[in-house]
Amino acid sequence: MPAEALRPSGQGFVSIVGAGPGPVDLMTLRARDRLQRAEVVMYDRLITPEVLALIPEAAERVYVGKALGYHSVPQTGIHALLVQHARMGRRVVRLKGGDPYVFGRGGEEVQALQAEGIAFEVVPGVTAASACSAAAGIPLTHRDLAASCVFLPGHLADDNATHDWAALAKSGQTRVFYMGLQRLPQIAHQLIAHGLAPDTPAAIVRDGARATQTVMATGLRDLVARALGYGPQPGLLIIGETVQLSPDFHPPAQ
Ligand code: SAH
After folding, report:
1. 70 CA to centre of ligand 1 in angstroms
2. Helix, strand, or coil (residue 66)
3. d(CA 71, CA 84)
4. CA count, 13 A, side-chain hemisphere, 217
5. Taken in order 63, 67, 73, 78, is the CA torsion positive or negative?
6. Ligand 1 centre and the CA of 234: distance in Å?
7. Whose CA is nearest to atom 16 of ligand 1?
8. 159 included as an active-site residue
9. Which of 2, 20, 109, 224 is the most exposed place for a label (fewest CB within 10 A)?
10. Co-location of 182 and 202 in the same domain
11. Same domain, 85 and 137
12. Residue closest by Cα to atom 3 of ligand 1
């Protein structure tokens, strides 16, 4: 249903839009439509300049991303801004990298809008796991190698209670860690301590699906040794047998 049909006259409307992994042609047509008709756009750090270029000149742009772990606007402030702009009767776009409902706090923003009776929609996007999987030649599931895949927040890996490491160490699954590159040593340590083979294929995909993409893929233990230095680009960690199907995979030295 088009957003306009959901928008009672004179009242604002919020579209929570997934922008995908960066390139404009990996956005959905619906996402592009909402962006081109926006009156206010609130966007995050991961949004690329080429996506921002779709925003109309007349629209107000509000940066609410975080830099170096510091939120320029706290989450409750983002909720308040969304409500405030919608109450002014505007078409508001809340633009997020990837998909709004995958580690994007889209759910919290929806709850805040519901609590205030603001009309909204959620427009899905290509999440980093799908984008990196396709661009790096790493199937997320594959007959005989991976019957399931699991998406995890890597930055919580220090906390033992966060993940069921014994379950994650079992074979036959692809583990995708978002926000996990800095915790790669801890993640590898936990998985290996719980029984995962140290040479299990593993990859780091940086700037996935973008012209600047890099892929490093080898055995998990070697990946830990080689993957030093974490830049500002987003990076995804993928661990599982299907990583060996990537053309960038180099088997670990014996
Ligand atoms: N909602 C987003 C994820 C936000 S969390 C989505 O669905 O993709 C931010 C994390 O996503 C980053 O730390 C990184 O792990 C991952 N990420 C986002 N875009 C990426 C890209 N183009 N390449 C690699 N990883 C990416």
Report:
1. 17
2. strand
3. 19
4. 24
5. positive
6. 6
7. 178
8. no
9. 2
10. yes
11. no
12. 103
Question: pLDDT band at 228, cuts 50/70/90?
Answer: low
pLDDT category, 70, cuts 50, 70, 90? low
Q: Which residues line ligand 1 (CB under 6 A)?
A: 21-22, 46, 96-99, 102-104, 127-128, 131-132, 178-179, 205, 207-210, 234-236
Instruction: Compute the C-alpha angle 188/219/167, nearest 5°.
Output: 45
The Cα 95–Cα 23 span in angstroms is 14
- pLDDT reading at 203 higher than 60: yes
Q: Is the pLDDT of residue 41 over 80?
A: yes
Residue with token string 């080689």: 226
Q: Token match 């409750």: residue? A: 76
Q: What is the CATH number of the domain that holds 27?
A: 3.40.1010.10
Active site residue 66: yes
**Tokens describing residue 219:** 């055995």
Burial 98-114 (b: 16+ CB within 10 A, else e): bbbbbbbbbeebbebbe
85 and 158, same domain (yes or no) = no
Mutate to test the pocket of ligand 1, among 46, 133, 175, 182 (most ligand atoms within 8 A of CB): 46
* 75 and 140 inside one domain: no
Burial class, 160, CB count within 10 angstroms (exposed 0-12 / middle 13-18 / buried 19+): exposed
Specify whether the CB–CB gap between 233 and 208 falls below 8 A. Answer: no
Among 147, 148, 74, smallest CA distance to 112 is for 74
Tokens 């009156």 correspond to what residue? Answer: 39
Handedness of CA 9, 13, 19, 20 (dihedral sign): negative
Domain count of the fold of the chain: 2
What range does the domain containing 60 cover?
A: 3-123
What does the alpha-carbon distance between residue 114 and residue 133 come to, in Å, rounded to a whole number? 34
